[in-house]
Specification:
3 domains; single chain; Rossmann fold; 32% helix; 15 strands; seven-stranded mixed sheet; alpha/beta; 13 helices; 373 residues
Length: 373
Amino acid sequence: MTHVSDELLDTLCCPVERRPLRPMTPDELRSLTIAIAAGRAGDPGGGRVAEPPEAGLATEDGTAFYPVLGGVPILLPQRRITIHDRPLPQNGRKGPPRFDSVEATWEHLASVWDTRRPPARPSPQDTALLERMVAEALAGRTAPRALMLGVTPEIATMHWPAGTRLLAIDASAAMIRKVWPAAAAPGAVVIRAEWAAMPIRDGAFDIVVGDASLGFQPYPDVFLGVVGETRRVLRDGGFLATRVYTRPETSEPIDAIFADLHAGRIGSMEFLWWRLYTAFHGDRTHPAKSSQLWDAWAAHVPDPAGLIETLGWPPGALRSMDALRGSPRTMTFPTLREYRDDLAGKFEEIACEAPEFENGDRNPTMVFRARPS
């Protein structure tokens, strides 16, 4: 789908200048195609734009453009296109900016998404809990607008209040391409954008929903930036509903975690990961490194294949741990108190409920109400 509906445009704006957007005209598309061929179309990094888009969105004055590719608006600040009077240098970076390690991480996660199990993705109990809490928050609202941070299928396809208009935002092309449940979420729309620079007009949504969307952000700048953007796009009295991953106030000893593992008291590789991530975690500015998990696994599990078989875990669990070897990825887990403290200035907490499964108290679903701006 290359057509962007008027209803969607009514919520969108340029992520850089926050000006309204409109569909590019046929003349603008032709002019942009000519400029790209001549090397006069560039991105903010000084690189030449390599390929003309199938369609696009333009700022009102027509001075900047954002591509629509595969029917998905790409509203990333780094994909903003401007046309120059002269060709850009040949040695400039060509094509869209590369995300390398970050995008590679999401490409990997998208490729193994179907093998991931709770708590790495919502359990049926988590989904039912979120569904109920969203329904309670939006009770009495007619045709509410919901903004989803990420493309988690369990959330996109849950039972939403009647008439809900759902827009999802994710910065990863791979997650949108491989994980977004387009066929199972008819009427929902996805765009490619950053949560810390949302191309959304102020106060456009009644609720923002996510799955651990806040917690994995680097602290403090990106985390607080996402919190600020979330509040900006909500109307006064709107809601934020999200599952959160937390770490305990006191770290567990690594040896105790592996003692539980060998005794069969850890239900899956995902539960082991989450306990190890929080055990290796320092303060908010010193998150856990994925490579630390593999190093600890190698030191404490002399026969990985035998242990996996004894525990009855699927063979893919071993492959998923091996994928962390040498990984540069880090994971940030705030404590529950840190979540509350950091959101208190912009939001009022109205609910916090934990699922009834292994370490469920570390994965509560929380609902906040936006304080008056």
